[in-house]
Structure formats: structure tokens, C-alpha cells
Design goal:
The structure is a homodimer of 208-residue chains. Helices cover 40% and strands 25% of the residues of chain A. The first copy, chain A, has 208 residues and is of the alpha+beta class. The first copy, chain A, folds into 2 domains: 123 residues, Jelly Rolls, CATH 2.60.120; 66 residues, Arc Repressor Mutant, subunit A. Chain A binds a DNA duplex (30 and 30 nucleotides) through helix 7.
Chain lengths: 208, 208
DNA sequence: TTTTAATTGTTGCAATTGCAACAATATAAT
DNA sequence: ATTATATTGTTGCAATTGCAACAATTAAAA
């Protein structure tokens, strides 16, 4: 995964952070964090650790919007959690650099390294857009079966393999696909019975 | 809408275009364009005109992925139409600047104006991500009614008004929401009958 | 102006889905 | 090791949805 400070020396990285008045924040595992930042226009970078950005529906349904580890980038605009209904939860001890988005845009700093920084950020955001596009491609499929097949498609296109290792739980997958978990389990069963797939723990093998 | 060359003089704009070996292309209305670019990593900017990026399903269903006018930015990564199933159609006489994405990233040009260019592009891509996030928010709603209400929500939040003017057709809306058009019409009728909305031509008034 | 094409509007019906209410495993915490 | 919690797995049933097959209206083209 692209790192925001790729091709930037440690020295210049420090300069950028100072220039942007970056804050480095530390959090313990399993905490609701950054709630005071919700109304600000920030970009956060995970230096180490693991966070999830979670939305709680008015029905109490919890959905994972982002699941980010080291080098993960998130923020108001990027993650679209400007309204109050979102929580950022640490799933591990986590160190985050917080940047002020408006400062990134408005600052005048035409050094090569700041240029590189902008290019890196651009690449990261473009990759995020790409991820969003893939999810939309999946979500626009009308049946559960087609959503699953499109999901398999997207994953295998990335990995060039007919074997998919779920990084998360099936419950999370049903969240991602925006379908009822039980209905998804049923459809997976049908796909198994019809010989399209095999499932063993978190390993899904495509047989087509 | 943000312009890619905001805060850049015409002179410097020309320099950037030359430096990036940009191509300015002209197309007539109602043409399938840029099919030869499909395998390249480009970013296109619409200088004038109107295009739509359209996906044709294996079932023959056509979906509008992007509907772009002046200043619109699109491209391989951003629009995720790297595979062959997409068409770019001019809906009017159109002038497009084509940029090589890899060149944008790899070129070494740390002038103030190139810096500004990168910031503008970054802002544009972030806005696009934001649009994608909104659509995902809508698509993850489980019933047609909730999709419609979330759509109304998103639009009225932008416009600060209880009146929505559809810029396109209802058929296109059902595409955007990824629901069957007839089922959507039925739900709109129910919403009307229950006094939640009023529809007159392309004007939807929210009564709640 | 007339014809053609596109969009809107309607509805029965079958298929799909979400929901509820479980049992069975597996994982994590004490 | 035992308890508690989370995840997986299953199924009946009612609600929602997509589909098909139309008519009516509106917009565009000849």
C-alpha cells in the first residue's frame, strides 16, 4: 500500500509535519477516538495500529465504513463521516498523525518534497476512489448472488487467484455487500450446493 | 465546481499542458469516443461539451456511471472503467484535454503553478470520492423507500432546500439507486399517497 | 405536422429478501 | 479450565422487489 511519505527523506518529512502543524496522537486499544475532530476538515494517517470507522444506524445496525491499518489514510472528505453518526474505534494501540486539510491545500510550499507529498496524497486518494468504485459496482448488482459473484470477481481480479481469504468475518462481508447476513449465508449454501464454490473457515475457493 | 486550472495563469497553464504532453481533442455530438485510450492510464478534462460514461451489462442494461460537463474530470483510476465494458459517449460537441496520469505523478516540476495544479487535482479527486461516498450511503440502504429517502436527504443537505429538481430522468434515477424503475415508481406513488412528497414534472417537494 | 422514440405510469405475480428466532461452533476473557 | 461473547449456520414466513406486459404521456425527429 502507498505510503504518504514515500520518496521523502525523514528530514523532509519532519519539515512537512512541522509546516502543516501536524499532531501525532497515541491511543489505547478499543477506544472511541477523535470525536472532537468530527467537525474539522482533517486527514489522518495511521502510523501504527488499527482502527475502524463505524456507522451506527438509527436502527442500531453497525456498519464498518473503513478498516484501516498502518499507512491507512482517512478523513472528513475522504471517508464522508462529517455527520455525527460515525465512530472511530481503535482495534489496537494506535498512533495517528492528524493533518489539517485546508492547510495542505492553502499552504505555499513549492519544495520538491512537498510536491512529492502532494503526489503521494493524490495517489492515495485516487486509490480510495478506486476502492469506492469497486464497491459501487458490487452494490449496484440486484441479487445477492450477483453481489457475491461480483465481489469474488473484484477480489480475484486483484489477486489473480481463484482462492479468496477473507480478512474479516462473514458478518462484516454481509455489511460490506449491504445484505442481510442470514440471506447471504443461504445464498452461499446454494452456491456451494451447485458446485460453484467451496468454503472452509475463511477460505473461499471458486470452482468456475 | 472546481476547475483544474484554478489560480493558474493562462501562461502557466500552457506550460503545464506542454510539460505533460497534453492532447486536446475535439469530438462531435453523439459519438463513442476514446475507445483507443481504454487501456491507458489517463485523466481527461472536459473543456467544453458534455459526455456520459456508460456501462453495458451482459444483460444489455445500460447504466450511466458518469455524467460530465464543463470542468468535469474523469479517468481510468477515477472512473474505474479499465475493463472493456464501458463506453464514453459525447452528448454534445466536446473538447477534451487528455493527460497521462503517470506523467503527472512522475514528472519533476516544483514550480508554484505545478504545485497549485496538483492541489487542484487533489481537491477534485477528493470531491469525487465524496460523491462516491454519498452514493454508497444510499446504496447500502436496504429498502427502496429508504434509498429514496436517503437520496432526498443527500440532495437537500447540499441545496438547503426541500425542493429537488431532477437534472435527469426518473429512469436515470432508478439506475443511480440501482433499483427497478417500476418498483421505484410504485414506491414514489406510496410516498405521494402517504403525504411525504409531491411530484410535478421534474420537481419533487418534500413535505416532511 | 405527423411519425417515431423516449419517458412516465400502472399492476399482477413469482422470485428474492429481510427478519426473527433459533442451535451450534469458535474465539476471547477471566 | 470455565465462562462469556462472538461468529457461523439454519429455516419458516411475511414483506419487498424485480419482471413482464402493458397504456398514457411527453419529447424528438422526419
Amino acid at each position: 500500500m502507498k505510503n504518504l511519505f514515500d520518496n521523502i527523506s525523514t528530514k523532509n518529512k519532519e519539515k512537512i509535519l512541522k509546516n502543516l502543524e501536524a499532531n501525532t496522537l497515541h491511543f489505547k486499544k478499543n477506544n472511541k477516538i477523535l470525536s472532537t475532530f468530527k467537525n474539522e476538515n482533517f486527514i489522518g494517517i495511521i502510523i501504527e495500529g488499527w482502527i475502524q470507522i463505524i456507522k451506527i444506524d438509527y436502527n442500531g445496525n453497525r456498519t464498518i465504513i473503513e478498516d484501516l491499518e498502518e499507512n491507512g489514510v482517512f478523513g472528513t472528505m475522504i471517508s464522508s463521516f462529517s455527520n455525527q453518526e460515525y465512530d472511530i474505534i481503535t482495534k489496537d494501540d494506535t498512533k495517528i498523525i492528524m493533518l489539517d486539510y485546508d492547510r495542505i491545500i492553502n499552504i505555499n510550499n513549492n519544495n520538491t518534497y512537498y510536491n512529492q507529498f502532494l503526489k503521494n496524497l493524490l495517489e492515495i486518494v485516487i486509490n480510495i476512489t478506486n476502492e469506492r468504485n469497486k464497491r459501487i459496482e458490487i452494490l449496484t448488482k440486484k441479487t445477492i448472488r450477483n453481489k457475491l459473484l461480483e465481489y469474488f470477481n473484484v477480489v480475484t481480479k486483484n489477486n489473480h487467484s481463484k482462492i479468496i481469504y477473507l480478512t474479516s468475518t462473514l458478518t462484516d462481508l454481509s455489511d460490506y455487500l449491504a445484505i442481510d447476513r442470514c440471506a447471504m449465508m443461504r445464498e452461499l449454501k446454494y452456491l456451494k450446493e451447485e458446485g460453484f464454490i467451496e468454503i472452509k473457515n475463511k477460505k473461499i475457493t471458486l470452482l468456475y
